[in-house]
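Task card 7
Instruction: Convert sequence to structure tokens.
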Amino acid sequence: MAKIIGLTGGIGSGKSTIANFFKEFGLPVYIADDEARKIMNTQYIINQIKNVFGNAIFDNEILDRAKLAAIVFNDPDQLSKLNGIIHPAVKKDFNEWLIKHNEYSYVVYEAAILFESGRYKDCDIVITVSVPEKTRIDRVVKRDNTTTEQVLSRIKMQWKDKERESKSDFVIPNENLKIAKEEVLKILKILNIKQNES
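Output:
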């Protein structure tokens, strides 16, 4: 079975960019947040969300993600309830994906809340993408057309960079893309991963 590289970082740290570097160098990448979004559209999960959060967050049977986000990112208990629905489904989906990629020596599992969810325990290597908080806020405000306050409410729900870094095997600073890409190459070399392996 392939070894798992857990890739994480706070909102706006540029995890997806770093994940794409790994993909470019030939490693399969599972983006947990993207898969969770797909899973949230399945009827089974929608029914569970409706049972827990009620009909108010649905418009004509379609989940209003903004309403759900407003609830869960301002209340840790509500976020915990949502994670209790989504995390087991994502874990099952990832395990099935992992079996399909078992010819690789390493795969990448990219998740914003790798530590908060406890999924880091399933990883053989953990990498944190690190960027100063102000840069992260500016990136997300621009990317999501949102407010500083909304970004800060999400940051508060996540671990601090220092906490993540202290439990990581590698830290990739991601303010300069050229340097970040060189760091990815260094990690591949340390782990003895040949580029574009299969």
